[in-house]
Amino acid sequence: MHVLIVDDERNIRESLRKYLSLEGIDSNSAETGEEAIILMEKEHFDAVILDLKLPGMSGQEVLEWIQARGILSPAIMISAHGEIPDAVEALKSGAKDYLTKPFDPAELIIKLKSLVENKRRENLLEAEKRTAPQETSLIGKSPVMKELSLRIDKIADTDVTVLLTGESGTGKEVVAHEIHKRGPNSADPFVAVNIGGIHDTLMESELFGHEKGAFTGAAARKPGLFELAGRGTLFLDEIGEMPMALQIKLLRVLQERKIRRLGGTSDIPVNARIISATNKNLETLVSEGKFREDLYYRINVFKVSLPPLRERREDIPLLAENLLGKAAARMGKPAHTISPEAEKKLMDYSYPGNVRELENVLERALIYCDGNEIRPEDIDLHTMEPGGVPPQRTGGKPAAGDVSGGPSLEDIEKKAISEALSRWDGNRTKAADELGISRKTIINKIKTYGLEDGTEDSE
């Protein structure tokens, strides 16, 4: 915690700094409001202790400056007994709390910690709004998964930068979240961002935040994901997709451990752990001049390679049971079981799309299934083709054009797309990713099936 003390009485400033130091709280101090503003333009503070009566610029005026600039530091006002109405007015202006002189330093510590904890919770809620909910359990008892779990234990208690590698769909975000959960700051936010899913022009603002008026359309101050992560974890997925210009800025963040919002004038410390992931060969990208070598070494302090699903087939029954239960709940269907024959069919497949493909297969099986048990004929072990229509199924159910009854594949596809869009509140990119098709394909299918009402053309 980094606190700014603003008081014109030297003995109060020094005694407060000493007391905060005993509590393990770092602090800086200013004698006047003008000095405080200079410090806040250069440094980020977790909280400000602000005297109401100051020579020159008053505490109320400093508070108004803080509010106008959109600075996130919550303020505790200090007032004399006769200034209580002024303190109440300051609360209306945005101060979070106040104390009257003389006050018990222990009470101040309690208020400070409460303010910072409330801010942490606000960041956590904001982070949850801006990142999609993901499966966060590491599932599997195979030797490779046991070894992976041991590696996670070794790095969880450290703050080293981690690079996760592996094929698409192997669960890199799950592993990143597991590292976070097992670490000392698990109560702090876990913030995930897919670099490949953000337009280049928006990426810098998303990561670093921006001030009001920083660019056209910046109607309000917005904290970046580095800031929202606090002392938790920032997960940068698809790091290999990051533009070269932003790679330079990320390198600087990792070196200096601070950021500056777009349009901002003060540096904000970065306390979050950084975990990156890629399904590309970054060494090849470095040799091709598409990824900075110095950044590669910065993010590759500890490398963890995730095994593809075909190398841990014994985990498929456990994974399938878990994923099927979650899919049924998400789709509003009753719990389903998997027949032994269907389980064997699942285990015999190689899954080029890994766990994500298994999840898609099971979701389609739920749509195909007539009862509460998944059978071999319910399992279509092929994702949708680039054209969009699933390939013909084998088994005892009618396919497209079959007049023997039952829904056509077009009906099934329309229902699958509609339900995916509903689960993701109309977000086409996320729905397409869930279905294993491209964004272009889902847009075409939305038009074909007349599903455009209620969907958003959002990333």
Automatic annotation (TrEMBL):
CDD domains, per database record:
AAA
UniProt keyword terms in alphabetical order:
ATP-binding, DNA-binding, Nucleotide-binding, Phosphoprotein, Transcription, Transcription regulation, Two-component regulatory system
Which Gene Ontology terms describe the biological processes this protein takes part in?
A: phosphorelay signal transduction system; regulation of DNA-templated transcription
SMART domains associated with the record = AAA, REC
On this chain, the residues bearing 4-aspartylphosphate are: D51
Domain of life, per UniProt, equals Bacteria
Q: Name one Pfam family in it.
A: Sigma54_activat
Transmembrane spans: none
The reply to whether tRNA-binding figures as a keyword in the UniProt entry is: no
A single GO molecular function, which one?
Answer: sequence-specific DNA binding
- What InterPro entries would the database entry show? AAA+_ATPase, AAA_lid_NorR, CheY-like_superfamily, Homeodomain-like_sf, HTH_Fis, P-loop_NTPase, Sig_transdc_resp-reg_receiver, Sigma_54_int
Disordered: annotated span: 384-409
Domain Response regulatory per the UniProt entry, residue ranges: 2-116
* Boundaries of every Sigma-54 factor interaction domain copy: 138-367
* UniProt entry tagged with the keyword Metal-binding: no
The protein, known as: Sigma-54-dependent Fis family transcriptional regulator
Question: What species is given as this protein's source?
Answer: Breznakiella homolactica
